[in-house]
Amino acid sequence: MKRMEIDIIFDEGFEDCLGAGWLQGVAEAALSAENTGDNVEMSLVITSQEKVRRLNRDFRGKDKSTDVISFAMLDELPVVQSEDKFTFVVPPDGVKHLGEVIISYPQAVMQADEHGHPVKKEMAILTIHGVLHLLGYDHIKDEEAEEMEDRERVILKSIMGEL
Questions:
Q1: Does the chain have fewer CB atoms within 10 Å around its N or its C terminus?
Q2: 9 near 42, Cβ under 8 Å?
Q3: How many domains does the chain have?
């Protein structure tokens, strides 16, 4: 069975900030643009600045606010050790479980104001950025950052009519 499943989760207090269907469409556009296929699954969580800061501190060792944080499952599959060898355990369902993107809605609002564009556009940018992280993109090195930013621009341009 082919599917592209994107679970949209709103933490309490953020349920009415944007439509789940719209956010799902942005994530699907990013996944499609990267040719991930149909058998993929991910989650997108819209939450508070405090929660994102806590996750950033606890999992990345950076005690500061950020706009989006991604937890890629493809890089963090469960590991089984036997006879001093490590092997990855892949779920048997044939679905690529990509992971989770978590966005600070209050941070998105502030950044939209700073950039002088709608919050919806900022949320699209952050969603695309987070999805690209799930797919292995990074921006630590300059050339990686340039490649990731190019992909973000192309994908954002492809959905601009929806903003």
A1: N
A2: no
A3: 1
